[in-house]
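Quick one: structure tokens for this chain, please?
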Amino acid sequence: MAHEGLATYLNDHLAGATAGLKLAELAANEHRSDAHGAFFAELVADIKVDYDVLAGIMDRINVEKSATKSALVEIGSAVMQPKFTGANDAMNAFITVETLSIGVEGKVCMWRALISVDDSDATLARVELEELLERAEDQRSRLEAKRLELAPEALAHTAPV
């Protein structure tokens, strides 16, 4: 079994990855027929690959996945769903992109942290952590570009004067 701190850390990130994947899937479905659909569909594929890599790392180092954290993600995703859907597509897309961007920044931090300890763990040393970090940084960059593209319409003042 992996060190308890590492196990907790990886389970926290797996929970975040699960929430991010669920949100990206929700957005891809919600925006499937508008200009943002392809962006979210591509993001789902990227996040799924990274989720699978993280789950595989956990399996290889015998980290048991937390049922409690999985349940909390399910509950949290259900409770938060209305925040990311509804009549205002521009605002929904903006908030979704911003939330996913924050999550991907967490993934960047995780890969960097794992790179800092990969010399002390043979299993981590076999993982292409630098490549995963580059992928996460690319995702973050694409999310930021989309966020700034969406901001003017989402944040425009539309109240009567």
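The mean pLDDT is 89.
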